[in-house]
Amino acid sequence: METHSFLTGQFLLALPGIGDPRFERAILAICAHDEEGALGIGVGDTVEGLGLHELLEQFEIEPGTAPDAPIHFGGPVEPRRGFILHSTDWGGQDTVDVAGRWGLSGSLDVLKAIADGTGPSRYLVALGYAGWGAGQLDEEMTRHGWFNVEGNSGLLFDTPAEARWSTAFNTAGIDPSLLASRGGTA
Known about the structure:
It holds the Pfam family DUF179. It comes from Stakelama sediminis. The chain is an alpha+beta fold. The protein has one domain: VC0467-like (3-Layer(aba) Sandwich), CATH 3.40.1740. The protein contains 5 helices and 10 strands. Strands 1, 2, 3, 4, 5, 6, 7, 8, 9 and 10 form a 10-stranded mixed sheet that branches. Strand 2 and strand 3 form a beta hairpin. The two termini are 29 Å apart. The model has no long low-confidence stretch (mean pLDDT 92).
């Protein structure tokens, strides 16, 4: 019997020399991974010059009590589509529970709740995502490029975006400055 390990609820860390400039020093929160494919949200980089207030105003939502939080670059697929990773103390019409570690929502109800102070206690907003077709991520995990670590809400919500990649490696007991930029051939 084949055992299969899916990565939902984990973080994927781009190894140095991944070979795709869009993913250099990337950290992706894997929100779905099964036989049909995978979806990850980038949480290590923010969109320059765009904050939550401007995003809310684009949807004609009054910012209310929401801080003008940075917007994350979620990935190269559908870069105008928004996703909110949030604490599990809130759930809306389309919220997906991600391995009991965080929620993923993508509809306006979560933005409205954040603006009026009734939303999740902790959250981050991202535009775009990274996606893989059936078996694609499984195949990529057999080659040099990605390293996975256990997902945790502290890294997601309590660590600044620019520090998440190195913090995740350090949490796994790895000094990222010692990583080689390419795999060996034994």
